[in-house]
Amino acid sequence: MTSPASSIHQPVKDERVSVDLGERSYNIVIGGNLLDRSGPLISEVLRKKRVAIITDETVGPLHLHRLQKTLEAEGIEQVSITLPAGEQTKDLKFFGDLLDRLLEARIGRDECLIAFGGGVIGDLTGFAASALRRGVDFIQIPTTLLSQVDSSVGGKTGVNSRHGKNLIGAFYQPKLVVADVSLLDSLPQRDLLAGYAEVVKYGLLGDFDFYNWLEQYGPAIIEGEISARIHAVKTSVQTKADIVAADEKESGVRALLNLGHTFGHALEAETGYGPSLVHGEGVAVGMLMAMDLSAKMGLMTWQDCERVKAHYQKTGLLSELPAIEGVVWNAKKLLAHMYQDKKVDKGKLTFILMKSIGAAFTTQDVNEDDILDILDSYVRSHTERN
Known about the structure:
The protein is an alpha/beta fold. The chain has helices at about 5-10, 40-45, 60-75, 90-105, 120-130, 145-150, 190-205, 210-225, 225-245, 260-270, 280-295, 300-315, 330-340, 370-385; strands at about 15-20, 25-30, 50-55, 75-85, 110-115, 135-140, 155-160, 165-170, 175-180, 350-355, 360-365. The protein has 14 helices and eleven strands.
């Protein structure tokens, strides 16, 4: 891995990571001020110079005109569809509405969708691409840190159900991912931190050197140091790309990418997948719960847990159950949500636990009483604070 000093002080340049999936391989291009230069990159992968851009009411007013301009310069015809922002858009109703609008726009099988937004837009657009006319191409232009390092890479697409998160969807790979880290400058601090939780995840699950680097340069990423952001995004997506190439449909090692998610999705379900707890915040708390469970089971040291919690404090990551109006945290209710998780196999929960920082593994050999104890400890701590 590139050393901390060189990654910060070298001249800023674009980086590329390849996702190696044979005929379905694609590139992730990472850089600063990349959106305005994305037209030629996009043109290279199009079969026909006509695209449909799907964005939301937050991203569209800020950046859509820039994407349209660079596409126009390449002679690419375009239609655009703007959806409401937020997790509530990621459901079957909006999925059906989006397909209807794409058909009304006469998007053909040789044309392409562009997902221009965060994880919600990326997941919804990718799922629509998989279904429209039995499959059209799509491109990801992620605009949040979370989507740049995680959801835009790997081909997981889909929508939520009232029964749980991401329970309806398909594995469907994009043709290209364009990650412009300069777009992160317009993110609220809360959304930036939610994405940073996923960056930390890559260090915790399998790259101790990267985690050490984050302890030193995490604040620079959050504060906007462009070379630090490029290095963090590149390292994160390289890790994910390697895992996806080895296990595209999550039958083995890819499950490691769900570190913190079994707990985190339960927290999101309890809050109704609304804005009161965004995905990255649920994952942040969920990773701490997974580490505490690992320590309780004697798999990793409490000292490692405290080290990670200190980094959370330093960078401002959410480390506890938040106070949310109308939500009464309850350990048994959270456990019930966990059993609706798509990773449940033969009635048993699947967990990603840790032996140390940078050494995660998958297991179903977990005592339910231990899970409840961890959940209850967070609930009690929340009650005492409030």
